[in-house]
Amino acid sequence: MSTKFPDGFLWGGATADFQYEGGFNEGKRGTLTTDYVTDGSYEQPRQITIKLSDGTLSTVQNRTSLPEGSVAWFHEGQYYPSHQAVDFYHHYQEDIALMAEMGFKTFRFSICWTRIFPTGDEECANEEGLKFYEDVVDECLKYNIEPLITICHDEIPSYLADTYDGWSSRHTIDCYLKLCEALFTRLKSKVKYWLTFNELNAVRGYSMMGTHSADNQTHYQAMHHVFLASALAVKMGHEMMPDAMFGTMYALSAIYPATCKPSDIRAAYNARRQSLFFSDVMMRGYYPSYSEKIFKDKGVTIKKEVGDDEILRLYPLDYLSFSYYRSTIVSAETEIDIMGGDANPYLETTPWGWPIDPEGLRYVLNEVYDRYQKPLFVVENGLGAVDEIGEDGTINDDYRIDYLTDHIMEMQKAICEDKVECLGYTMWGCIDLVSLSTGEMKKRYGFVYVDMDDKGNGTLKRTKKKSFDWYKKVIATNGEDLSK
Questions:
Q1: What confidence tier does 43 reach under pLDDT thresholds 50, 70, 90?
Q2: Residues 379, 14 contacting (CB under 8 angstroms)
Q3: Domain tally for the chain?
Q4: Which domain holds residue 101?
Q5: pLDDT tens across 70-81, in order?
Q6: Separation between Cα atoms, residue 217 and residue 165, nearest integer Å
Q7: Which residues does the annotation mark as catalytic?
Q8: How far from chain centre, in Å, is Cα 166?
Q9: What is the CATH number of the domain that holds 169?
Q10: Do residues 282 and 247 make contact, with C-beta atoms less than 8 angstroms apart?
């Protein structure tokens, strides 16, 4: 039995524009909903500063709804991480050269929507934005790095949010398709792998969906519009780029029953259904039968127009990509949130309390491949940790190497022993970026250290960590040599 990864397996890394790119207010870039999210810590969730209808300023939690009549607002003296991030906008050549030195076969990055359409409502695309992304793609291709582009990663133009209530309006579908057409027209001969959206089973509210309410009716109706937008993007993409492949990314960290009690097993099954509902619609092309009960329990009625179901049926996704960081357990008493259930007492945790479960990656790869029988792509996996620079200037991150080694070994078993079809693996935050879950810089993921603190101070100098050379060897041996 072969234990080798397939020839052509796409090793690489992944980033998101609002955590990595920066370049705020440059190149005619407009504002995003994520631009209004402030910094914070693990104990204190980030806030959105808002201007109320009476003109006063207030704050709300990142994933809750905004009061009626309010709009997102910048507050003088407040730090907004997305504005600079780690400044890939000005460092993209340096960063891609570092990726090439590691031997990357692919680089997953996302498009800043408002760099192409500053409000989202323009008829013509912004040339400066298109040129920037074409330059990024060309820089990748110079080193034979396959671009993997996420078209929309957890954000939306703030104008579409405040004017149309984001994805709750069908108008946003048309705006999204304009973005797709502009990208496909410009990059169609250069990019094969596309992701229409990111972590759709874990996004909600203003900053991610552009909706001023996070109630279930608004959320699922907005998600119906996202489903249609993705399907129509697949249609357009296949017509314009017959060889291209389209997927969407989902947060699929494993969910287990807390015990073998039937009620716990059923609770975990139901929790997983609620998570896989989104990929069921987009991979299979129709709303699953069990969604009727979900909508009934949540008080949701999806309003469809004639032809909606036909669009979903005709244009499903070509492959499924997902993030995997941890696993959780669920009992009949567990309150499920977007990150899953309770901590598993049998697992060690990261400094931020996330259970470490490499075997869960093999479990999920088999779970979703059994379900869809379409190619998979692990596009996020990694360890957030505090990295210290030694007196000699080196950064010894053996803990990251250990984490990634264990996960890659389980992925190898899924591919080689279980015969799961997997296109590639892009480790999250390959070059240090701002953490989404905490808004911190000190929660680092990368193979490359970026000199910047939690408030955006620093030289932005890039420094290789020990894991840099380790991953270089992993790629060079196509996963056969995982030793330190």
A1: low
A2: yes
A3: 1
A4: 10-30+81-476
A5: 778 888 888 999
A6: 13
A7: 199, 380
A8: 19
A9: 3.20.20.80
A10: no
